[in-house]
Amino acid sequence: MPSAAQLRNDRIDKLVAEFEGTKTRTLAPIYKRSLELFPRVTKERTKTYAEAALRILKANRKAAKKEAKKPEKEES
Predict the structure, then answer these.
(1) CB-based contact 18:33 (threshold 8 Å)
(2) Taking a C-beta distance cutoff of 8 angstroms, is the pair 55, 40 a contact?
(3) Hey, is 72 helix, strand or coil?
(4) CA nearest 50: which of 75, 31, 70, 74?
(5) How do residues 12-53 score in pLDDT, each as one tens digit?
(6) CB-based contacts of 56: which residues, under 8 Å, 6+ apart?
(7) What residue spans define the domains of the chain?
(8) Long-range contacts of 41-50 (CB under 8 A, 24+ apart)
(9) Cα angle vertex 32, ends 39, 1, to 5°?
(10) How far apart (Å, rounded) are the C-alpha atoms in residues 26 and 59?
C-alpha cells in the first residue's frame, strides 16, 4: 500500500503531466481539472495539489528557457 506522501506525489505528477506543454499560467484550470480527477479528495487538499503542480510547471518552463538561451559550446 503506497504511503500518503507517495499518493500526493503521484497526483501532483499526474496534473503536471496533463498540463505540460500548455500555456496555462493560472491556478483555475489546474484546480478545475484536479477536482475532476480526484473527486474524493477535499477541496482544500485539491487546491494544494493544484498549487504544487503550478509551481512545478513554472519551474520547468523557467529551466527550459534558461537552457534555450545557453549558447552551445563547440569542441575544437
Answers:
(1) yes
(2) no
(3) coil
(4) 31
(5) 999 999 999 888 889 999 999 999 999 999 999 999 999 999
(6) 12, 16
(7) 4-69
(8) 41/11, 49/8, 49/11, 49/12, 49/15, 50/15
(9) 35
(10) 14
Per-residue three-class SS string for 9-63: HHHHHHHHHHHCCCCCCCHHHHHHHHHHHCCCCCHHHHHHHHHHHHHHHHHHHHH
Per the CB < 8 A criterion, the answer to whether 16 and 54 are in contact is: no
In the block, cell 498540463 appears at 19
Q: Cell 523557467 maps to which residue?
A: 62
DSSP 2: -
